[in-house]
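COMPLEX REQUEST
Ligand: fe (iii) ion
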Amino acid sequence: MARITAGVATSHVPAIGAAIDNGKTREPYWQPVLAGYDFSKRWIDAQKPDVVLLVYNDHASTFSLDIVPTFAIGCGESFKPADEGWGPRPVPEVQGHPELAAHIAQSVIQQDFDLTIINKMDVDHGLTVPLSLMFGQPQAWPCRVIPFAVNVVLYPPPSGRRCYELGRALRRAVESFDEDLNVQVWGTGGMSHQLQGPRAGLINREWDNHWLDRLIDDPEPLSRLPHIEYVREAGSEGVELVMWLIMRGALDTRVEVIHRFYHVPASNTAVGHVILENAK
Ligand code: DHB
Ligand code: FE
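STATUS: Structure written out below.
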């Protein structure tokens, strides 16, 4: 059977992608950001996941305001990097896993979560920057990736509670797939940041780190945090953090912290990153 072997969470700042693509990662501004992922690259190289179920948000790249699905699963063979205004990032195409994705869609929809099925789409920095942070700059991504898009751009995003429960449903789906696959679930976006309005530039280190503590040790009550607290404490884009709760819901209540990193600033964002495994 397929197994979920780990959860990974990371911020997805587009400027990190630009720094990697333009050879600037040794600059004093970027070096400490990338240093937080040195361990992670070695760890994932040893883990060799077959598939990453990558929970991310599209930033009006594939979904315009014409159609905004709350939850959408990429069931296609492959997904190209999106052109976000400066041409597509020079990173490999993402190879999907249509069989597992279709199984997850079937299982999760039967568990009463409505998913939009996407057979063709481009993937933006929300998905490609986490891949670059974890895998560096390979010729081809070393595993299959199932894009799982969550609306956190147009109000209302799904509640943290629903995201956490969805994580549980995804776990049941993966664990009922009849092939021996090493699957990781990633939650991306966050941590505190606000890109517009009078509070643009907001960062809240204390709140972010307390949120991380609760994500690790006490996820149930954390999942009940209302949106307004994310927006007030972590800024309007801080609400991207609900996607981390999908990853967390796919793991056991007790987890082991394999790696934890926090750094400010990266562009306008507080970068957070954790690797979690079910406690032995
Ligand atoms: C930034 C952060 C984001 O999450 C995003 O989607 C776009 C920009 C930033 O910090 O610049
Ligand atoms: Fe974002």
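REMARKS: The CA atoms of residues 261 and 273 lie 5 Å apart. The longest strand covers residues 255-266.
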